[in-house]
TrEMBL record, chains A, B:
<dbReference type="InterPro" id="IPR036513">
    <property type="entry name" value="STAS_dom_sf"/>
</dbReference>
<protein>
    <submittedName>
        <fullName>RsbT antagonist protein RsbS</fullName>
    </submittedName>
</protein>
<dbReference type="InterPro" id="IPR051932">
    <property type="entry name" value="Bact_StressResp_Reg"/>
</dbReference>
<dbReference type="InterPro" id="IPR002645">
    <property type="entry name" value="STAS_dom"/>
</dbReference>
<dbReference type="Pfam" id="PF01740">
    <property type="entry name" value="STAS"/>
</dbReference>
<feature type="domain" description="STAS">
    <location>
        <begin position="12"/>
        <end position="112"/>
    </location>
</feature>
């Protein structure tokens, strides 16, 4: 299984709607970085509204892919972090530093467009 | 495997990036109709840029889901139909009547917004 990555103007949109297994998460990491390279995307919105629960491996992959995207020059906004996911991330020490967050995909895209407009 | 359906304002966006098997296609049909109901979406963009080849079953499911979405009040735009897919659809007699098409996701979304603005 692979997670589709949608290109919309200068941004990539990803909506993770089901719990990720380890293989899918790693595949997603690779796919996203390739897609950033291929499309010259300046921003990425990752929506995880549907994720109720996150384990330490997935949390690390998520943290890593955000750092990697930034290295490649793309701003990342993570949207729809649920309470349980927020708790897990902090408890695992994954700080998602300098990552913008927003309530939902629409607000995330608006935030990204504002930041890219600067 | 299920295909993520993204909600962006009044529209739903779907990007089918890998060949569908029959089960996934049927699941997608059901998921899309539920999502239209749940979100009151007025439009749907289905991007099939990555689909190189379509068989008769998938073509029928695609034709059906477009008709069903219209019955539920959502306009559908299909984007990124490749030559081989266009040939298959016409040869199978699936006309996708009254369905707007566009080159890519961005143009599809613009077309949908124009149509919804009427």
């Amino acid at each position: 299984m692979r997670i589709p990555i949608l290109k919309l103007y200068e941004c990539l949109l990803v909506s993770i709607q089901w719990e990720l297994d380890d293989q899918t998460a790693l595949q997603f990491q690779e796919d996203l970085l390739h897609k950033i390279h291929e499309t010259n995307a300046r921003g990425v919105v990752i929506d995880i509204t549907s994720i109720d629960f996150i384990d330490s491996f997935i949390a690390k992959v998520l943290g890593d892919v955000i750092e990697m995207s930034k290295l490649m020059g793309a701003k990342v906004v993570v949207t729809g972090i649920r309470p349980a996911v927020a708790i897990t991330l902090i408890e695992l020490g994954i700080r998602l530093e300098d990552v913008s967050t927003a309530l939902d995909l629409e607000k995330g895209l608006e935030k990204l467009q504002q930041e890219l407009g600067d």
